[in-house]
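Q: Please design a sequence for this.
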């Protein structure tokens, strides 16, 4: 970036010491006296050839302005708000916008939800494929396992019953670990409704003796109002799927199991699912099906 161009950027600043700020923005080591902050910027966000925040802001602003009719005008507008810290975009935007990737474009969104569309092998592997496509551009994925039939449920194509929804968790987890973009491994969030018949296996899956299962995914329980009321009332709670009750448990015992496993390994997480849906202002048109890792 030329000195003449740099001088023009001084007009974006309102501070009296604009020249000093501009000098510090040219190189990371000038801008950040904190070595950790400088390392984060350098290792996660700067593109090859970039020396500091100024280069990053220029790249991002030009990329975002490139789709506008008056690209130069919007470049200056976008650069100004980035330079003044009036707006700081998400990490994937700062990392990926404007990068000249030879093979593929990085995603500008951190996370996605990719549902398992149907209770079948085709549905599971379609989700696996779509998730891999997201991982290879640097994104993360969330998917819910509640649609899958529980362990022992009848399957038309086999004599034996279903292996259960949790049997596919390691497959999804290992795919997340294997597929990456520029060395950045994907992120995966797996969820299950608290009333699913496989919920107890889901809760404990990371706490077997080896602690080697589902190492590359986070797991969280979708908690319903009905379940929390049963915990408060200390009553029985039905685990059901497809309109059939597979098992009945004591609500507080299931709640205790969630808490004990979360204490032992920081998982499963808790998502108050009914509350999320109540506060989701597009639920009537686009119902929530899961959550993403973010």
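A: Design:
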């Amino acid at each position: 970036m030329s000195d003449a161009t740099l001088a023009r950027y001084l007009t974006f600043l309102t501070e009296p010491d604009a020249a000093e700020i501009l000098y510090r923005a040219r190189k990371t080591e000038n801008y950040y006296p904190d070595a950790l902050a400088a390392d984060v910027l350098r290792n996660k966000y700067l593109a090859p050839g970039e020396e500091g925040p100024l280069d990053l802001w220029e790249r991002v602003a030009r990329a975002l302005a490139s789709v506008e009719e008056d690209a130069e005008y919007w470049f200056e507008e976008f650069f100004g708000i980035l330079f003044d810290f009036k707006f700081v975009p998400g990490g994937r935007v700062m990392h990926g916008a404007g990068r000249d990737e030879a093979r593929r474009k990085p995603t500008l969104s951190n996370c996605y939800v990719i549902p398992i569309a149907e209770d079948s092998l085709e549905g599971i592997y379609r989700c696996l494929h779509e998730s891999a496509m997201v991982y290879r551009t640097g994104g993360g994925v969330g998917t819910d396992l509640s649609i899958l039939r529980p362990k022992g449920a009848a399957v038309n194509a086999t004599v034996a019953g279903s292996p259960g929804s949790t049997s596919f968790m390691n497959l999804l987890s290992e795919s997340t670990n294997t597929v990456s973009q520029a060395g950045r491994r994907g992120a995966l969030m797996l969820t299950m409704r608290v009333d699913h018949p496989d919920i107890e296996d889901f809760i404990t899956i990371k706490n077997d003796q080896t602690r080697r299962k589902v190492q590359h995914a986070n797991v969280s329980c979708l908690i319903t109002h009905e379940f929390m009321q049963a915990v408060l009332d200390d009553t029985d709670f039905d685990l059901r799927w497809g309109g059939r009750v597979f098992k009945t448990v004591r609500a507080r015992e299931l709640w205790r199991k969630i808490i004990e496993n979360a204490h032992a390994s920081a998982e499963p997480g808790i998502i108050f699912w009914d509350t999320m849906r109540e506060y989701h202002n597009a639920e009537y048109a686009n119902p929530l099906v899961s959550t993403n890792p973010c």
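Q: Thanks. Anything notable?
A: The longest helix spans residues 121-135. The chain has a mean pLDDT of 86.
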